[in-house]
UniProtKB/TrEMBL annotation:
InterPro entries: BHMT-like, HCY_dom, HCY_dom_sf, Hcy_S-methyltransferase. It comes from the Bacteria. This is S-methylmethionine:homocysteine methyltransferase. GO terms for molecular function: S-adenosylmethionine-homocysteine S-methyltransferase activity; zinc ion binding. PROSITE patterns: HCY. One of its GO terms (biological process) is S-methylmethionine cycle. Its cofactor is Zn(2+). The keyword Zinc applies. Zn(2+) binds at residues 244, 309-310. Keywords: Metal-binding, Methyltransferase, Transferase, Zinc. The keyword Metal-binding applies. NCBIfam families: PRK09485.1. The gene is mmuM. Residues 17-324 form the Hcy-binding domain.
Length: 337
């Protein structure tokens, strides 16, 4: 960009992302809740390495309905059913590269259709911005379907992780979503591998959230503060934070993030139950019974994007939205945007 009163070329500013625009207008951005476990609650059989991506083949209408129900509950975004949709997983099912890519694109189409159906009703627009669609980018461990996104990896290089992620990014970055949701990342190497690929897709913005083992470390055991700090200067990372982590750790993790990044902080914990990756079942008691009250504490510590992950549902998002409005954390406007 050339400044008209100078011979100096000025740097071209980064374009404002839809997420940045939304946060500037409303302060708190409501995420959706779990997709896969909500589909299971509605009767879907997801005992399969493809997990929720299985329904892209078998029951796409059910995926669309869950997205719509989250919008009705107050979510400002739909996160697509592409978390476990990988070329490797689809190939094991006998699908070609192009068939797999079509299913990945379908995940975005379903979320966009739900968003458009929601927005077509004038009553839904009152006090709301037009919701966004975030294409889910699950970790390498999701493709393995062995629970390693909650442990981390040994012996996998950053280059190998980049090689794994690139083909799916090439599809989802151009599938029509507003941004990418790079989620449940267990280690810094995978986060940097993904972040290093984003410049290949100019204009694409992403949030990046880690899975964490406690209130100070990611799932691989690296300091969470260091992970957040290393992403702070990367312009295509729109927000950083944590997901699919027990609620009791979130407050500490938000405080660490706030001290090590200027980016908006995203949090969407699970219910607090423990997932057994061998038997594919959840153990323990959920600790999200006061999810809305906890969410307001996370917001008070600095979280700007808040929702739920595994074993949360539309009722939890509705409760957070109501608490946010009641507390003044989220001010509903009188006209749609």
């Amino acid at each position: 960009m050339f400044h008209p009163f100078s011979n100096v070329m000025m740097p071209t500013p980064e374009p404002t992302s839809p997420l940045q625009t939304a946060l500037a207008e409303q302060g708190l951005f409501m995420l959706d809740g779990a997709l896969a476990t909500e589909l299971e609650r509605r009767g879907a059989d997801l005992l399969d390495p493809l997990w929720s991506a299985k329904l892209l083949i078998e029951q796409p209408d059910l995926i669309r309905q869950v997205h719509l129900d989250y919008f009705l509950a107050g979510a400002d975004v739909a996160t697509t059913a592409s978390y476990q949709a990988t070329f490797e997983a689809f190939a094991r099912r006998g699908l070609s590269h192009e068939q797999a890519a079509d299913l990945m694109r379908r995940s975005v189409t379903l979320a966009c259709e739900a968003r458009d159906a929601f927005w077509a009703e004038p009553a839904h627009r009152v006090g709301r911005r037009r919701p966004l669609v975030a294409a889910s980018i699950g970790p390498y461990g999701a493709m393995l379907a062995d629970g390693s996104e909650y442990r981390g990896y040994q012996g996998i290089s950053r280059q190998a992780l980049a090689d794994f992620h690139r083909p799916r990014l090439q599809v989802l970055a151009h599938a029509g979503a507003d941004l990418l949701a790079c989620e449940t990342i267990p280690c810094l190497d995978e986060a940097l591998a993904i972040a290093g690929l984003l410049p290949e897709f100019p204009g694409v913005q992403a949030w990046l959230s880690f899975s964490c083992r406690d209130g100070a470390h990611n799932s691989q055991g690296e300091p969470f503060a260091d992970c957040v700090a290393q992403l702070d200067a990367l312009p295509q990372i729109a927000a950083v934070g944590v997901n699919c982590t027990a609620p009791e750790f979130i407050e500490s993790l938000v405080e660490l993030a706030r001290s090590h990044t200027t980016k908006p902080i995203v949090v969407y914990p699970n219910s607090g139950e423990h997932y057994d990756a061998v038997d594919k079942v959840w153990h323990g008691e959920g600790r999200a019974h006061d999810f809305a009250a906890q969410a307001m504490r996370w917001h008070g510590r600095g979280a700007r994007l808040i929702g739920g992950c595994c074993r949360t549902g539309p009722d939890d998002i509705r409760a957070i939205k109501q608490a946010a409005v009641a507390s003044g954390a989220l001010i509903e406007t009188g006209a749609p945007r």
